[in-house]
Amino acid sequence: MNNQFSFCSISELANLIKNKKVSPVELTHYFLDKLETIGPQYNAIAHIKQAEKAEKEIFNNEYLGSLHGIPYAAKDLLSTNDGSPTTWGAKPFLNQSYEIESTIITKLNSAGAILCAKTSMVEFAGGMGYQQPNASAFGPGINPWNKSFWSGGSSSGSGSAVASGIIPFAIGSETWGSILSPASNCGITGLRPTFGIVSRYGSMVLSWTLDKIGPLALSSNDIEIITQNIIGKDNKDPYSIENSFNLLNQIPKNLKIGIPDDITNNIQKEVKDNFNTTLKILESQYKLIPIKLPELPISAATRTILSAEASSAFEEIFEKGLQTKLNAQETHYSSLATNAVLAKDYIKSLRIQNILHQQMNEIFNNVDIIISPVKPSTASKINENFRWATRKEFSEDHPITLIGAIGNLIGLPGISIPNGFDKNGLPTSFQIMGNIQSDRLIIKCAQLIQNETDWHNKHPN
């Protein structure tokens, strides 16, 4: 089967469907074949739905909008009620299934999108403290740009699937880096939405106060279409909030862009050079303002909250000793660390979270968005301890790490956009982060960059 539909944008596919140049059934069969034949090359797929089941979900009545008939895949922590497995990326749960359907799956189905597969993921979304790419029941996520390198985690399969062109878009989740990291490693676009605007009902819980669900796609235009269809308050998720996504139609003419001090210190040369090139595009139209990030133990507070809440979320797993059956050896004793978090430290971290909210609001009184590289380096090798790979000459107090911790600790939206390659042909990326409910603004800013560059249109052979 040729590549006639691979790497087409959602708008292009939607136009073909709307004008009846291709049927949803034909498109579904095309991507199901890609998922089945190419997906295993990247350890990207946990489960493929049968074509007959997928076809039954296609609406045959009026045209429903831009996602009508568009195939997609979802991270394997989102439950479906069709009897198919929801494994959480872990061997002890390979046969786990649910009778409830995740709200985000329901919303996408209602928009006419076709769920074709569950994408592979790191065991328990990385909540056990993994250090190796092979921490998954389905093997390490393989980077489509170079199979010797990692696709990133924990939404590994979602990143690989979109980057390899075997699905138009995928859904991932992020508690601390799990959407932006694979998007960056794989050279695609990924959105971490404002905490609460996308319902988590029906999703595996890692951290009640940090988990977010968002899309990975080929471009920010696609991200905008998907996001419009997945946001909305949901009474089934007690943390769900109303959103103001559709209130912004264009970038303010006086947009002010914050650049954290020392953001390019001690990072990979190509990451630095490509980020500086991005800055030149932006400074030709908008004002760049140096900013100083809050001096708080942000990473430590994020880690403490995540560990404490994971200990509670996975209490039954720890009691049964199921973590000892996971691929990642280092996670077999992770309960010793998570269960050791003191109540006073958890409360202290929540207080830091509140103070950080206040201090970031002050920063956003002076700037509209903040930009930074997503990571200090490109993808690590598939057989390498990825944490040590990035910390050999890189402190977790570096501004890039702090940006990621800030965004996740207080639920700020962020979007990863490719902006070049390194000498090994691996993608580099940068991120745009905004204040709460500025999701549409950061998407519009990403569109500005992608309208003037073509990095998002470059794909692996």
Structure description:
Helices cover 34% and strands 13% of the residues. It is of the alpha/beta class. The chain folds into two domains: 10-247, Amidase signature (AS) domain (Amidase signature (AS) enzymes, Alpha-Beta Complex); 256-298 and 343-457, Amidase signature (AS) enzymes. It has an eleven-stranded mixed sheet, sandwiched between helices. Helix 8 links the parallel strand 7 (256-260) and strand 8. The chain is globular. The mean pLDDT is 93.
H-E string: HHEHEHEHEHEEHEHEHHHHEHHEEH
The name of the CATH topology of the largest domain is Amidase signature (AS) enzymes
Distance between the termini: 15 Å
Number of strands: 11
Specify Rg, calculated over alpha carbons: 20 Å
Percent of residues in beta strands: 5-15%
| Biggest sheet, spatial arrangement of strands | 1-3-2-4-6-5-10-11-9-7-8
Q: Which structural class fits the helix and strand makeup? A: alpha/beta
What kind of sheet is the major sheet? 11 strands, mixed
In terms of per-residue confidence, which ranges show pLDDT below 50 for 5 or more consecutive residues?
A: none
* Overall geometric form: globular
CATH H-level homologous superfamily name of the largest domain: Amidase signature (AS) domain
The DSSP helix count reads: 15
The CATH class of the largest domain turns out to be Alpha Beta
Domain count: 2
Q: What is the architecture of the largest domain at the second tier of CATH?
A: Alpha-Beta Complex
Q: Please estimate the helix content.
A: 25-40%
Overall mean confidence score, pLDDT: 93
